[in-house]
Amino acid sequence: MLDMLTHSFHLLIFPGGLFALLLGLLLKGFDRKICARLQRRVGPPILQPFYDIIKLSQKETIIPDTANKAIFKFAPVFGFMGMMVAAMLIPVPGVWNGATGLGDMLMLLYLLPIPAIAFMLAGSASSSPYGAIGTSREMVLMFAYEIPLLVVLLTVALKAGGADGSEFSLAQVVSYQHANGSFGLSLSMIPAFIAFLCFIPGTMGAVPFDLPEAEPELLEGPLLEYSGPLLAMFNLTSALKLVVVMGLGVTLFFPGTIPGGALANLAWFIFKCFMLMLVSVTIVRTATGRLRTDQTFKFYLKYPSVLAYVSLGLTLLLK
């Protein structure tokens, strides 16, 4: 009974659930505000993502007559629940060690694509031609950015593992770095860190990799027909995924703690997530334009994948 209550707390309150939702929406607000200021615009208020959720939750949900209604409703719920579980697995160094003993890295490898799959289900179910095009683009994009992620996770597991190099526990990754130094400061792991930075805007659908939505071309693509609470759920899923991806980056490369107890380390974790978002999402989407689908696929095969394999090779040599 106690274990069930503990897991429910971690799923619904911290580090997943309420904490991840609030942090994700706040990070999105800072992202939009900073991006606007870099482009010499005033931009929306930092709390605008919260206002958007409140507004959408009060709107009517309109479902096209030709849509597959069951899948149309299921898709946003599927993506949201997948990210709720993923957020629970992310350690907050100095505060929460993560769900130890679960092979968390492998679980996250399966959970992270769920929002993209939900996005594709939404586009397929909407009966919109824009949704169909966005679905095909999302599929190509997902295949492209999943390759470097897989190699990065394998490299980290080899680096943090024992003699057999088979450790897939995020808690062990954090523990190893506390004893031996952050991977982000290791020469052999810097290529993997750069590859992970390239993975982030792809999985978040941010410019220059926002191909599936591409407002000037596809008018939000698979989300074109969504409104009301269902659209709000997609926005909440995106906020959760932002926290999961940033938290995973912090855990894999910079999980160090500071003196001052749990509260200080919680603030330190949030700051590191913010800085990672600033470097990998905000500045990149401010300074670049959208790539074509073929350019995106070639980019991930040529650069992040090669960098990840370089770190993997160096790690194997050092082992």
TrEMBL record:
Bilayer topology: Multi-pass membrane protein
Keyword annotations: Membrane, Oxidoreductase, Transmembrane, Transmembrane helix
Source taxon at top rank: Bacteria
Residue stretches spanning the membrane: 12-30, 77-96, 108-127, 139-163, 183-209, 230-254, 266-287, 299-318
Keyword Membrane: yes
EC class: oxidoreductase
EC number of this enzyme: 1.-.-.-
Record keyword Transmembrane present: yes
Pfam families tied to this protein: NADHdh (PF00146)
GO MF annotation terms: oxidoreductase activity
PANTHER family documented for this protein: FORMATE HYDROGENLYASE SUBUNIT 4 (PTHR43359), FORMATE HYDROGENLYASE SUBUNIT 4-RELATED (PTHR43359:SF1)
Protein name: Respiratory chain complex I subunit 1 family protein
